[in-house]
Design a protein that fits this description.
The complex is a heterotetramer, with two copies of chain A and two copies of chain B. Chain A has five helices and 16 strands. In chain A, helix 5 links the parallel strand 12 and strand 13. Chain A is 16% helix and 35% strand. Chain B has an eight-stranded parallel sheet. Classes of the chains: A alpha/beta, B alpha/beta. At the B-C interface, strand 11, strand 13, strand 14, helix 6 and helix 7 of B face strand 11, strand 13, strand 14, helix 6 and helix 7 of C. Bound molecules: flavin-adenine dinucleotide (2 copies), flavin mononucleotide (2 copies) and FE2/S2 (inorganic) cluster (2 copies).
Chain lengths: 258, 305, 305, 258
C-alpha cells in the first residue's frame, strides 16, 4: 500500500456521467489481483473530506499505469471528473483483497456478472482469467443505453451479454433474466454490482463456487475505523464481522450477509 | 530533552502527538505502515467488558469539512483486547492510553481494573462522551455528579493515571471538568465528537442507520479550541486536545489554546501517515525557528503547567 | 396556493425562505439589489432598548467551512429602529420577524411591546442565544426556567406571535424547546451560532477581540439538522430552521428533518442574492418534479403540522 | 455593484508572493473612483468560505478589464494565485466609496503614500489625478527589495520615492523618514497602507487635507453584517461608527479612529 500523488494521463467521459481515468505512478507495481481498489482524495482541501473508494479496472505495469472507471455523481466524483491530463491525484492503494484468481484452473468456465458501476473490476478480472486459460462469459447489466460502457472491451475476452432494465440496449431486464434466457452454464461465478443484484444471484445459485465484491461507505479504507463492516452469514451471537475495505471487498460466495 | 518531548501523568511522550481513540484501532493496520515508536502516545479504541458489534451500517457520512460516525463502540471486548491486542505493543516503547467505555459504572470499573493490571497501559481514558450508543456513556458525560462519581470509582480500582474524555455536547464543559478534577482525575481529553445528523434525501430519513452520529474533523476545530481555552483557565489538569487537527498549524493552535498534548482523529482516515508526518514536521519547524521547547510558543498566561 | 407558500403564526410566507437575523441588517443594502417582496419573510437584526456599538474588531474570523462572528448585537436601538428602519418596509408585503435581545427581562419586554405596537411586525423572535455578549441573553437560552419565564412575560406584552430562538450550546435543546412551548411560545427558531474560538498564532491570543465568537456556515449544518430533528419529535411548535443553509439541497434537508421554514444566514455574505436565487430554484425544482407542495417531500411521520 | 464570473486574462507573480491579475467583465463598467475594491470568492466550495477584499489597481473600460495586485499569503490569496488564464473568478464589486478625486483641482500637488500591499489603489488614483491636471508625488514603502513592485509604473506619473525598512532598495526607513528627508511639500495627502503607517502620517500632519484607505476583516463587504466597523474620532458616547466596506474604505483625514 502506498500513498502517492499519481499523474493523470487521461480522463474522459465514455458514457453518460461515466469517466475513464488513466493514472500513472509507482503504486501500480503493487497491484496484485483484480478487484483491489484505490482510495482517492478528490480534493486538496477539506471539502469533500473523505476519500472515495474506486476499483482498479485495468493495470499496465510496464507503463506504470492503471485505469479506473467511475460515475460522476456526488461531490467527490464530480470533482474527480474535472481533473486534466498531467494533474496529480492523491491516491491511497492498492487496497482490499481482490478476486481469488489463483483458485481458478485452466479450462474452467467462469461467469462474470457486473451491474452498473460494479462492472469495472471485472475487466481486469476477465483479462487475468483468460491469461490463466479459463473461458470467460460476461453478463453486464445497466439501467439504460446511455450508461452502457466497455461491452466491446469484454467482447475481446469471451462471450458478452448486455442487458438494460429499460430494454434500450441489448437484452431487456435484469442480468438474472439474461442468464435464464441464455441458459448459461459455468463452473464458477464472480459478481460485482448493486446489492439487490448480488442477492438475486445468491438466491439463484446458493451453492455455486464463486465470490462477490461488496460496496459500503468507508472512512479509512484500511481497516482502522470499522465504518465498513458487514455481518457474516454464519454467526450465532451477532458479534462476528468482516471489514469490506480490508477483509473484502471480495468475499467468498455466501460468507457475508448482503 | 528534546524540543518536543512532554511528560504527562502516565504518558512520557517523545512528542505531543498521538492518534485519537477510535481512529487507529489497536494499531494493527497503521503499525504496518510506520514504526509506532515514532508516536508520542497511542490512544486505543474504546474497550468494553463484552465484545460489541456496534451499530448497523451506514456508519459514516460526510459533511462540510467534517464527517459523522456512528460506529457504536465496536470492539472485541476486554478479554480479547488483553489477549490478542496488547501483545502487539510488547516491543513498542510508546505509552498507551486505553480508552474505556461501558453502560454502567461497574463496566468501567471492570475494564479499568483489568487493563491497569496488565502493566502494559500508561494511562486510562474514560470515554464518558460517546454520542453513538443509546444505553449509556453519554449520561456520565453530561451530568457532573455522575462524572465525578465514575471518576472516583475508576480511580479506586486503577493503579495508573486516569484521564476523563469530555463531551462537547454540554452547556458548560468547565463544570464537568472541575467536577472530575475534584474527583481525582489525572488529566482531561477533549473534545469528543459533537452530536449531528445528515438526512438522506432519497428516503427522507437520517442517512446513518443509527440516525445520530458524532461530528469530527476540521469543522469542529473552533469548538474544540474554545472548550480547551475555557477548561485551561478553570482547571490545573493536563489537557489532551483534539478536534479537527490535521496540520502543523492546527497543532500549534491547540498548544497555544491550552492543550498539553494533541490527538489526531479523523485526519488518519485521509492520510494514514499523518501522525508520523506531523511529529516530524513539528520538530523540524521548532528547530528552524530555534524554539527550545514547544511550550515556549505559548503566551505566558496560558502556561499553567 | 402555490407549491411553496406556507403559513406560520404571524408570517404568511409566499415561500419558506427568509434571511436569518443579523445577516441582512434591516434590509437596506440588499433591498437595493432585489425586490424584497420575493422573500418569504425577513428576520431583522437584533434590536435592543438602547443603541449598541457592539464588540471591538476583529469581529469575524474564518474557519473550515464556517466563520466566527462576534458582532455583539450592534444596533441603533429601539427608537431608531422604529423611526428610521421600519418605514423602509411600508411598501413591502413580506412579513417581518423582529429579532429582539437584551440583558434583562425588562429589556425584552420593552422592545417586544414597542415593536408589536408598531403594527409593522409579523412576529417577534426572542434572541435568547447570542453567544457574543457577556451580560445576558445566553443565560436565558441555557436555563429552561428562565427561558420559560421570559417567554411568558414577552407574550403578555405582545399582541403578535412570539418565536423563541434557541441556542445550540446546551446539553439538551429539547428541554428548552418544551419549556418555552409550555410557556406559550408560538414558534421556534433554531439554531443560533455555536460558541467557538480561533487563535492568532502571531500573538498567541484569540483572534477575535471578544475572544469567543459564534460559529455559523456549512460546518454547523449537521448539528442544526440533528437539533431540528430532535425538537420536531418533542414539540408541536412550528420551526424556522437554520444553520449552514446555502443550496437548494440544504433547504430540502431542513424541511425533511422537520423545519417548517428555513432561514439563510452566512450564505448572504458570500452571495447577497442567495435568498432570491434559492426561492426561485426551489419553486422550479418542485415544478419540474411535479410535487404539489414542498411539505410533500417529507416522510409522513415527520409531517406533524 | 455586480456579482459576476469574471474571466482571468493574466495572473503572474511580479515580486515575491505579489501577483498581478487581469480580470475581464461587465463589472468594470461600474467602477467609478480609484480606491473601490472587489470582494473575491477564491473558491467554489466552502473552504475558504468568505470572500477576500482586494483593491482595484487599474481599469481599462474599453477592454472591460481591470487589474488587481495581491499578496499570496493566506489560504484564499494563495488559492487565487493558482488561477490560470481563461479561468473564471466569482467577483462581487465594485464596492466601497473610493478616493474623492472630484475635490482635487487642477494644479494641486498631491502626495500619495502607500505601504506594502496598500500601494495598488494608489496607481489608479495617480492616473486619474494626472488626468485631472494635478501634480503627483508618490512615496512607496516596502519591507525589503524582494517585495517592491510598480515603482516604474508610478514613475511615469510623477516623482517617486521608494523606501524599504531594511534599506535593501531605495531609501532606508519608513515612508515618513523619506518625506522628512526630501522635505516634500504638497496640498493634499492620500494614503493607503498598514495602520501604523497611517497613524504616523496622521500624527505628523494632523490638519492636512486628504483621505486614507483602511483595512478591516470583512464578512459581507456590502454593509450588512457590521463586521468591519470602526469608531469615529469625534464621538462622545461611543455609539457612532463607520463601516469600512460601505462608508469606506476611504475616509476623510481624521474622521475615524485608527
Ligand atoms: C470497494 C469499492 C469499489 C468501488 N468501485 C467503484 C468504481 O470502480 N467506480 C465507481 O464509480 N464507483 C465505485 N464505487 C462506489 C464509489 O465509491 C461511490 O460511488 C463514491 O464514493 C461516491 O462518491 P461521490 O462523491 O460521488 O458521492 P457523495 O454522495 O458525495 O458521497 C458521500 C460519501 O458517501 C460515500 N458513498 C456514496 N456512495 C457510495 C457507494 N456506492 N459506495 C461506497 N461509498 C459511497 C462516499 O465515498 C462519501 O464518503 C466503489 C465502492 C467501493 C466500496
Ligand atoms: C478594502 C481592502 C482592500 C484591500 N486591498 C488589497 C489589495 O489590493 N491587495 C492585497 O494583497 N490585499 C488587499 N487587502 C488585504 C486582503 O484583503 C487580505 O490580505 C486578504 O483578505 C487575506 O486573505 P488570505 O486568504 O491571504 O488570508 P487568510 O489568513 O486566509 O484570511 C483569513 C480571513 O481574514 C481576513 N483578512 C486577513 N488579513 C486581512 C487584511 N489585511 N484585511 C482584511 N481582511 C483580512 C480574510 O479576508 C479572511 O476573511 C485589502 C483589504 C481591504 C479591507
Ligand atoms: C470513526 C471514529 C471512531 C471513534 N471512536 C472513539 C472511541 O472509541 N472512543 C473515544 O473516546 N472517541 C472516539 N472517537 C472520537 C475521537 O477520538 C476524537 O475525539 C474526535 O473524532 C475528534 O477528533 P478529530 O476531529 O481529530 O477526529 C471516534 C471518532 C471517529 C471519527
Ligand atoms: C454576522 C452574524 C450576525 C448575527 N446576528 C444575529 C442577531 O443579531 N440575532 C440573532 O438571533 N442571530 C444572529 N446571528 C445568527 C444567525 O441568525 C443564524 O442563526 C446563524 O448564523 C446560523 O445560520 P447560518 O449558518 O446560515 O449563518 C448572526 C449570525 C452572523 C453570522
Ligand atoms: S473503511 Fe475504515 S475499517 Fe473499512
Ligand atoms: S463587511 Fe459586512 S458590514 Fe462591512
Amino acid at each position: 500500500m502506498k500513498k502517492e500523488d499519481m499523474i493523470v494521463r487521461d480522463n474522459r467521459e465514455i458514457a453518460q456521467d461515466i469517466y475513464e481515468m488513466v493514472l500513472e505512478g509507482n503504486l501500480v507495481g503493487e497491484v496484485e489481483r483484480p478487484g483491489e481498489f484505490l482510495h482517492i482524495n478528490t480534493s486538496r482541501h477539506s471539502v469533500p473530506l473523505l476519500r472515495r473508494p474506486i476499483s482498479i479496472c485495468n493495470t499496465d505495469k510496464q507503463k506504470r499505469q492503471l485505469t479506473i472507471l467511475y460515475r460522476a455523481e456526488g461531490q467527490g466524483t464530480r470533482l474527480l471528473s474535472t481533473y486534466s491530463t498531467n494533474d496529480t491525484v492523491d491516491v491511497l492503494g492498492p487496497l482490499g483483497n481482490g478476486f481469488p484468481v489463483g483458485d481458478v484452473s485452466s479450462g474452467e468456465t467462469v461467469l462474470l456478472v457486473g451491474g452498473g458501476i460494479g462492472v469495472p473490476p471485472l475487466y481486469d478480472l476477465a483479462t487475468v482469467l483468460r491469461e490463466q486459460g479459463a473461458t470467460v462469459i460476461t453478463v453486464l447489466g445497466f439501467s439504460n443505453k446511455n450508461v452502457v460502457f466497455y461491452e466491446n472491451h469484454f467482447q475481446k475476452l469471451g462471450d458478452v451479454y448486455v442487458s438494460t432494465i429499460d430494454g434500450s440496449f441489448g437484452y431487456s431486464g435484469f442480468v438474472t433474466d439474461v442468464i435464464d434466457q441464455k441458459k448459461l452454464s459455468f463452473d464458477r461465478l464472480f459478481a460485482c454490482g448493486p446489492v439487490p443484484m448480488l442477492r438475486a444471484l445468491e438466491d439463484k445459485y446458493p451453492n455455486v463456487k464463486g465470490s462477490l465484491s461488496l460496496e459500503e461507505r468507508m472512512g479509512c479504507g484500511i481497516g482502522v475505523c470499522l465504518a465498513c463492516v458487514c455481518h457474516t452469514q454464519n454467526d450465532p451471537d451477532g458479534s462476528d464481522y468482516r471489514k469490506v475495505c480490508s477483509d473484502g471487498p471480495v468475499f467468498p460466495w455466501g460468507e457475508v450477509v448482503l | 530533552m528534546s524540543r518536543v518531548n512532554i511528560d504527562l501523568p502516565g504518558l512520557s511522550m517523545k512528542n505531543p502527538i498521538m492518534p485519537a481513540s477510535g481512529c487507529f484501532g489497536f494499531g494493527e493496520e497503521i503499525g504496518k505502515l510506520y514504526d509506532l515508536n515514532e508516536l508520542g502516545a497511542i490512544a486505543l479504541k474504546a474497550t468494553t467488558p463484552q465484545p460489541r458489534y456496534g451499530n448497523e451500517t451506514p456508519r459514516v457520512a460526510e459533511t462540510a469539512s467534517g464527517m459523522l460516525n456512528a460506529i457504536g463502540l465496536q470492539n472485541p471486548g476486554l478479554e480479547k483486547v488483553i489477549t490478542e491486542q496488547l501483545s502487539r505493543f510488547d516491543t513498542i516503547e510508546t505509552p498507551l492510553l486505553a480508552n474505556i467505555a461501558g453502560t454502567t459504572m461497574e463496566d468501567y470499573e471492570e475494564v479499568a481494573e483489568a487493563l491497569s493490571k496488565t502493566g502494559k497501559i500508561g494511562a486510562l481514558e474514560l470515554n464518558i462522551s460517546c454520542p453513538n450508543v443509546k444505553e449509556g456513556g453519554i449520561a456520565f458525560g453530561t451530568d457532573p455528579q455522575l462524572a465525578a462519581e465514575l471518576t472516583k470509582r475508576v480511580k479506586a480500582v486503577s493503579n495508573i493515571p486516569v484521564y476523563v474524555k469530555l463531551s462537547p455536547n454540554v452547556t458548560d464543559i468547565t463544570v464537568i471538568a472541575k467536577a472530575v478534577e475534584r474527583a481525582g482525575a489525572d488529566g482531561l481529553s477533549l473534545i469528543n465528537t459533537l452530536s449531528g445528523m445528515k438526512m438522506d434525501r432519497n428516503t427522507g430519513k437520517p442517512l446513518l442507520a443509527n440516525s445520530v452520529g458524532g461530528l469530527s474533523g476540521p469543522a469542529i476545530k473552533p469548538i474544540a479550541i474554545r472548550m480547551i481555552h475555557e477548561v485551561r483557565h478553570q482547571t490545573e489538569l493536563p489537557i489532551i486536545g483534539m478536534g479537527g487537527v490535521s496540520t502543523l498549524d492546527d497543532i500549534l493552535d491547540f498548544i497555544i489554546a491550552g492543550a498539553d498534548a494533541v490527538a489526531v482523529g479523523t485526519a488518519n482516515f485521509i492520510n494514514p501517515f499523518v501522525c508520523l508526518e506531523l511529529s516530524q514536521a513539528l520538530e523540524q519547524s521548532l528547530e528552524r525557528q530555534q524554539i527550545n521547547h514547544l511550550y515556549d510558543i505559548r503566551p505566558k498566561e496560558v502556561h499553567l503547567r
